[in-house]
Amino acid sequence: AQSVTQLGSHVSVSEGALVLLRCNYSSSVPPYLFWYVQYPNQGLQLLLKYTTGATLVKGINGFEAEFKKSETSFHLTKPSAHMSDAAEYFCAVSDHGETSGSRLTFGEGTQLTVNP
Amino acid sequence: DAGVTQSPTHLIKTRGQQVTLRCSPKSGHDTVSWYQQALGQGPQFIFQYYEEEERQRGNFPDRFSGHQFPNYSSELNVNALLLGDSALYLCASSLWPTDTQYFGPGTRLTVL
């Protein structure tokens, strides 16, 4: 069974500072990993994903994440925070199969606050 | 190109009632998944539909049922509503079997 742990339910940074949101996963198959962002009263928007290949993946809005198999981690980073980055961020792992489809297992989320 | 759409946006029901939520997938997608997001928590997988059949199911009681239509749209039905069913219900669409899931804006269900 898949599981995701997001370390830190709340993270606060200053505008212009580095953003680091932590995600560790457990998976019985080679994982597909995702980061989604959720703004208040909205659905989830895909930031980036890792399936195979290059372990450093770049997403929208300047975010990137690195898949580290040895550490079972997929941390999300952004060099310089912007006020508009304030939102809830969810890390997810996919239980996937060619005949069974896929389901996402989400972490509990990290609320990012950006201070002026 | 329209993304995933859901209706209604908000819904208020009382305990014991039944509710139907609707989802239209992104153009070109053939698979629909449903998730429940309780306040302050991450989304929980309910089930996934492809070719009008339920393909995977999460740990939800039989009160939760679904349907997929030939045009790939889907419904989520919840019977005998409980207070604990109050949540944001998210629909996601994708291409079978393992494509990235794209989410709709959700339906906020309140059970009184």
> Roughly what percent helix of chain B?
under 10%
Q: In percent terms, what proportion of residues of chain A is strand?
A: over 45%
Assembly level: heterodimer
Shape of chain B: globular
* Average pLDDT reading of chain B: 96
Radius of gyration of chain A: 14 Å
The interface involving the most residues is between: A-B, 28 and 29 residues
Q: What is the N-to-C order of secondary-structure elements of chain B (H for helix, E for strand)?
A: EEEEEEEEEEE
Number of helices of chain B: 0
**What is the strand content of chain B?**
over 45%
Helical region count of chain A? 0
Helix share, percent of chain A = under 10%
Q: Outline the low-pLDDT stretches of chain B.
A: none
- What would you report as the Rg of chain B, rounded to the nearest angstrom? 13 Å
Sketch the major β-sheet of chain A.
Answer: 6 strands, mixed
Count all strands of chain B and give the number. 11
Return the average pLDDT of chain A rounded to an integer: 93
Broad structural category of chain A: mainly beta
List the helices and strands of chain A in order: EEEEEEEEEEE
What general outline of chain A do the C-alpha atoms trace? globular
N- to C-terminal distance of chain A: 41 Å
